[in-house]
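Q: Two folds, back to back.
A: First:
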Amino acid sequence: MSGTLRVRVASAGTGKTTVLVARYLELIGAGVPLRRIAGATFTRAAAGELRQRVAAGIRDLLADGTFLDIVTLQPGQEERFAEARRELPGALLTTISGLMVRLLRLTAPQAGLDPDFTVMAETEAELIFEEELLSLALTGDRTFDAAERQRALTLFARRSLSREFQAGEPAARDLLELYGRAHQGYRLRLGPKLLGPADVELAALRLAAQPVLLERLRSRFSHVLLDEYQDVNPVQGSFFRALVNAGLAVEAVGDPKQSIYAFRDADVDVFRRALAEGERLPDLRETRRHTPELAAFLNRLTAGTAGPAAGFTAAEAPAVTSAGTQAAREGRVEVHWLDGRADMALLRNQEARLLVRLLSAQRQAGYVWEDMAVIARAHAALETARRALTEAGIPAAFGSGRGFFSRPEIIDVANAIAVGISPSGPEFAAWLRSPFVQLSMEETQQVLLAEDRRAALAGIDERHTEALDRLAGIVQLAPVAALQAVLREPLALGRPYADWLGGRQRANLDALLQRTAARPPADLELLLDSLRRQRRARTAEVPEAGGGVELVTVHSAKGLEWPVAALFDAGRRFSPPQPDVLVRRSDGAVALPGSPLYASLWEAERERLQQEAARQLYVAASRPRDRLLITGSKSGGWAPLLKQAGLFPGLPADGAVPAGTRLSRHEFALEAAAPLPDPRAEQPVRVAAAWTGETYGSGPWPAVTSPSRLRAEDPGAGSGSGEPLRNQGELQDSGLAVSRAAAAGTLLHSAIAWNWRPDDDGFSDNLLAQEVMFPFTAEERLLIAERVTRHLRTYLSMLGRELPGLAERERDEAELPVILPYAGTVWQGTVDRLYRADSRWYLDDYKTDAAVRPELYLGQLALYELAVREARGIVPSVRLVWLRHGLITDISGEELERARSGLEAAPAET
């Protein structure tokens, strides 16, 4: 039994997704249940959008009786569409790989697979294959050099090109023998439960060779609708032909002019073969993306270049007309070219500054920077453009790059979402160690090993379980709302996660939120899968923190659009690298450099890549809605295609230039070609604080000193003082000894700040192990520890009586650092304790003196009180806590003010 194959060409902006949704509705209306239709497209984001569009189409039909005036609800069809609406959550609308996975699960036992098999990332598959390859050398089973190793890895990465490999020449036999042995180990290691993406394709192709299994698929699905068919690879194409032969109705839509994914093994010839073998449906010829001026330019470009050099035929490039609201807008196309005897790098500098002027003109015309994109074939070109934009003060951010999804803050957020979905998953441990929870290694192990993890977590801090409960609720929200909640709500120790991050990290999270909002996934699982996949990808298409003009490569621009787009560095030449091994797509024949077969295959491959580079011009030029700007230098790159179409400045054209298109040439100008600023040498722009321009004269005290030094100015300060010397390191460096009283004071302050208790296990050992104890003998250490213990017991006896108990305090901060400019001096010190109890703030300073003499510390306390007032905006009650005596001395505001006045009038130091 043979099915049907129907194919449609849809140029950029002509609404192929709309037509695909309409086809879903037509089939449902004709009585085909939605569960019998399998839909697939190239990316998960596109598949999610297709599902949403089908849902909206069904809703519109049932509510209004029509879908965009394309499909009309007929009498008696209501129940069919109501049934489809109920089936939509379980309908098969996915990627091509996802479609193959679903079909493999239907026939898994017969196909030798576990029905619950897992699909791992291709990068993980490559690592496992490489391990099996290296194990051959380690066991001595097979030796090979670095070149053979790399060629075997290349073959593994290209296995989507053919059902199987074979030696196209004798020299390739050894390589295939090495590859075969490593691949056998790889397959044994994976078994029936694990597959890589390419393994899924090959398994699906093996399934398609078995009539019994194909009949099983046909009994489950009757129709397959495929989007972006120009991007399928040879193995995928063979699989879909097998479905047609098995009796399924396959309908595909695509655009050969937009086939630019050869690095993913996409092969435009698969689409062309489908066009030749199947029924060609009417081309889509109305573009609702482009203004009439842009449509006319694209028509001239495709009609004037169609042929082998452009990578598409005239039949694959139907003329389009502007439709919808864009048909009423006025557009513009500008082509600017630089020429001269100057070095290409200098010309690019001038071209980049020309680009700045062109974009600035669009800004003057009413477009904001976020409406604009700069598109180039190479990241290096985008960096040049970015330098020029930075020089002009124009905001810009990369829309593609590497490493973004591997940044810790992005991983932390993904782990938090995963924990909300399932707190028993592997992400739970990472969440515990992240800024969300901030557990130590010991605490993390304690929670993970506990029988009741939740109880263990609550025992450490109840805020963690509150956050866990909130995450479980957040993941019930729509993806964008859930992501926003994770970023904004106080889920990290009672504060938003971003509060624990620096400015760059916060900007990256904003970029992640903007990216997700611009292309929202259908559910959180898709969002997490996208984040994990992009993290592993070699060339992840990611946003960069920041806004303004978007800088994107042609590959990452595909599928997107902007009101204004500029093609920069259009004269860059294309020189494809020569691979270490080549595969003939028709039969999988493998050839190595130096052989006649390799030479012929390389010639064909180079031509294929050159054609794809030419198709990139169409993809890039079709991105803008209103205005297209093209700049280039010299005569390489896309210049020959523009000349062929009569769209190159300074050349006579066969016909008039399309309306709205302007061609301009520019001579080399040395001053405009000056070096652009190097971003590595740039300093971040910071707003100067108000005090940075002020100057300070010398005051009565040293330029920088500690408030505790004021105690030493008292002529009566001598023996018996237990005041800790906080600058003891300076004294030791100067050769001065640290007194036992000073060491005891330092340890006592630390013990109070850390809420130690003498009855705690290990308390004495902790005291003896502190660094301040190192200069003393063992006997002296015991005496110091005894003094600290005695004073600490006094302090603890005061809690709940003279001092508010720790549990009674609404806020409590210990060892608070202070920096205060006052009286010509910068004072640096530490407030022992600042806390709030019974709606009243207290500033306590602990003393261990033998004599109770508050007057010695008034200057020091006056500075601390002033620092707290200026930094926190509160007026605390200031007190001296005498730990030898268990007494408290309240210091009045008048005493503090007199002490500060005395500091200003004190005689200068000599």
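A: Second:
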Amino acid sequence: MTDPDLHARASALFVALRDLGAADRRKALRAAAAEDPLLASEVESLLVHDVADGRDVADVEWSADRLDRIGPYEILERIGRGSSGQVFLAEQHEPIHRRVAIKIVPEAALSAELAARFEVERRAMERTEHPNIARILDAGRTDGGLPYLVMEYVQGPPITTYCDQKGLSLLDRIRLVLDVADAVQHAHQCGVIHRDLKPGNILVASIQDRAIPCVLDFGIAKPVAGTFHADTPPTLGVPMGTPAYMAPEQTGLVGVDTRADVYALGAVLYELACGRPPVDASGDPLEVLRRIRDAVPPPASRVRANAAPASVLADLDAILAKALEKSRERRYATAAAFADDLRRLLRREPIEARAPTIGYRTARFVQRNRALVAAGALVAAACVLGILGLSIGLVQANRERAEALRQNESQREINRFLTEDLLAQASPDRAGADVTVLDLLHRASDTIDARFPTRPLVAASVHQALGEAFAELGSLEDAERHIDRALELRRASAGPDDPDTLRSEIARSSLIARAERFDEAEPALRACVARARAILGTDDRDLYTALNDLGVTLEGRGKPGDAVPVLEEALAGRKRVLGAVDRDVLTTQSNLALALDATGDVQRSLAMLLEALRTAEALPDPPRFTVLGLNNNVAATYQDLGREREAAPYLLKAGAMAADALGPDHPATLTIQANLASLEAKLGDPARAIELFEHVVAARTASIGAGATDTLIARHGYLEAVRAQCRYDEAAAGFAELLADVERELGENDPLAAQTSLSLAKARFDAGRVAEALAPAEWAAFRLESLYGGDHFRASAARDLVARIRSGTPAGD
């Protein structure tokens, strides 16, 4: 039967059955299923979602309106009614006084299927114990034999209504969904799939001014296979759920697993972000089912404007696209994975739903780390070169590969390729005026194997060089493709233990690390290090490339203590093999400084930064932006340690270089001006600091918005200057307002929130408002210790303030 035939027959049968009683409808559907199961499935799906609400309930010879009491519960009013039953508000007087919600499914008395489903709901709710899931309190049967459930009464509107009534920001809406996702993950771990997550089943209660979302109605819940003994009645492929939030697999004969709830979570967040569900569920029921299966919703950011940074909106669109994938295999595997990506978004960390390009990873690194060095990390990105195994660039990479080739003929072939297949493409006559480097590399890529059909090692060298160039430009997928090809050719032609084969292995492992696939990169780089020691020897530079990249990987996995000795070996080896003044030496010095800072060894980190700066300045052609960034970071570290006078010359030099190279309004120049303003305040000229900060705040607000991280950091510096003028009450009020803005825009776990809370405590303490200072000081101490460890100087400073507040030591003593 063709699709039009199915549509016509299903519509006709639906019209014929919709006005029958429940028993007659079931009998007719069984007869239809015996002849054509697909037709019966489509018709029953239409009947399930028929807008004639309550028709089945009316078929039962029982009236809920006459009910006034169930056991110890006094019925007050009906608060919900649908195809799966009715819900009443009731009051219990003994042994405790409380209001409860009671659910009754009248038709369960007549239908074995609904009775079994009701039993599943009871067992599902009994298995869950979570603050964001309504609790089951009691169960039983009425005097007339109807099963009922007594549940916690959640007094509050649906999550969409609550967010609109409160005017919540996009980030606050995401935080609410995080609580819901955690509850759903808990249910899944208990063996329960909800299958009908939607705003109407997520109510938000306000308890002590805190929003508590609560998941309700497990009426069509399904046990995860093998989890508890309550078999879900068969549905013959009938869609179960609410169309606007229903995963595509819920519309047909495919089995449903926990990823259906992940889809529904994405649908709820989509509606919270843009004001409508991802699928239009109005109109012809068969057309609605088609939309659920096939129609891809537009990005939420294009449907409704939100007052959030563009990077946040882009990440949210990527997360929603992954959660709402039509194919469940491409969806988040768990609700926890979905929640983890939302938390990364709130922390300004790279999300898993986006391709890990270098530009994206770098942007997220800058966003989440600026507060750690008084906004210096923006320029720090210029000095932290990271993994250099893939950052040589096309020209240098080609030179190094040329040195490895043993035959002049091979060298001539490579030169011809670079001239005829790559550089010649840059001619305006052939490429046009707007050709990019990536365009040229892509065009050249397609000719390699055809150019060298009988010279696989030459082709491998060219693939390697192009892979490294693509990586330098942030096109990691292209880079991986070329380096994989180089490795394949070298293994086949030269063997697995050939030095050049190993160099390709190191380059590939470095690429994995550069993409921050650290779990995969660590074992690969460890294997490369062991093979490099045996095959290349301790005088080969690529051994130390592998060690350097392994150290960066260990730090990326949150193991800076393990990274330090690896990077120390890499640094010593590079100095010995390459000499003390070399760009690769500078790279490893920078990486080691980062690892030392992460372990809390700030003094040694500072020494390493100073040494890296001296190395950079000693190079024959000092890299200007690297020197600029190192000067700024050295100064920022001195400022963090309270050594402002030592910071001054480095900061002044960085400021002059930035103004000369970038211009007065460049973001990096503004960052250094903010650091200079902070320096002025601490050196005794807060009036000058306030003037500088006012300029920076205004410039950043105009260019990147009031809620941007850099703007918030500049406001923090401005208020610190106000506090330095002894305007304590004004500073305290400003810090309280700033803290609210930071938590709304960046989240309460952002380092800037902890720093602002500490500044608020200091301002109140300075103003003599000791009792008001304790709470923000304690919170700051807890968060700073969580972020940096108990021995870090920031955590120690916060604990010292808490001790002074508790002891009543006067401010200034």
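Q: And?
A: Residues 164-354 form a domain with the Transferase(Phosphotransferase); domain 1 fold (CATH 1.10.510.10).
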